Each structure stands twice: as structure tokens, then as C-alpha cells.
Give the backbone structure.
Amino acid sequence: MPFYGVHNEKPVQQSNRPKKDRDREGKKRRAIDLSFVSSEAAPRLRFSFEAKRMYHGGSVGAYLGNEGLGCFIGGEYGFNESAAGMLGYVQNRTAEEWSERIKVKMESKREAILLLSDPAWINTELFVLGMKVKRSLHDRRRNLGMITIYHSFLDLREI
């Protein structure tokens, strides 16, 4: 990755945030969990990940909610990007179980998460630690157009 910089918890630019979030300061300010930025002069490609812990009953809601996938759908994260990633850190159960739970919930919340792909997601040819990466397609609010989300699950119990 010699031509990309990696940034951890990169704050979101003030102008890209909705009015309701512009007064967030310090630790309460939204930040992209993991961001890859190309060193090319133009176009400067970016790929952002939002990460969520998968460890209890509310984890699926957090993954799909306003602080997870909702950040991309609402345009707070990935404002100028056509693709982004969701990363689930599996701390109990298996990556496959969490993947299935999220898929089922995505189908039931299709309108709320502006899901365009049917079924909710498909397997890609990409792998993360032996598990296929999933892909879903969503519309976005604020007339930002569609965004492709790549879903990866890291089983921390096996690392």
C-alpha cells in the first residue's frame, strides 16, 4: 500500500455534517473509524470504514443504525465516495452468525436503510481472513446518489 495513507478515527469535516451534528465538539464529534486516502494528486481517492463491535443483542442495531451504516446513508461519512465499508469486530458467536443476523435485519429494514440491492447483499470475490466480503447497494439522503457498501466481519476470537 505504498500509494495510500491510512488514518484512524479521522474527524469528519464540519461542512459535510448535517446541521444537527455541527455543534458536536471534541470526543462527541463524528469520526470515520478507518480511512484510506490515495497519495495521487487528482483524483484523490478515498475509502472509509465504519467499525462496530459484534458482541451482544444490540450489536445488529448499532451496525445498521445512525452511528453505523446510517452515517453513510445520511451522507455524514463518505460524502464524496461511491463506495465504503462496514467492519464488524466479532467478539462472540461466529462471523457467519453475525453476517446472517445483519442480512435478515437489512431485509426487514429495507426502506429505512434505503436498500436497493435484492437480496440484501451478495458475496464478492474478496476475502477477509477466509470469509467472503459482502456487498450491498444503498441510496443516500441529501441527493448524494447511490453508495456501495462492502461488509467484512473479523472474528477476533480466531486471531
Q: What stands out?
A: The CA atoms of residues 110 and 158 lie 32 Å apart. The mean pLDDT is 83. Strands lie at 4-11, 31-38, 46-54, 83-90, 122-128, 131-138, 147-155. The radius of gyration is 15 Å.
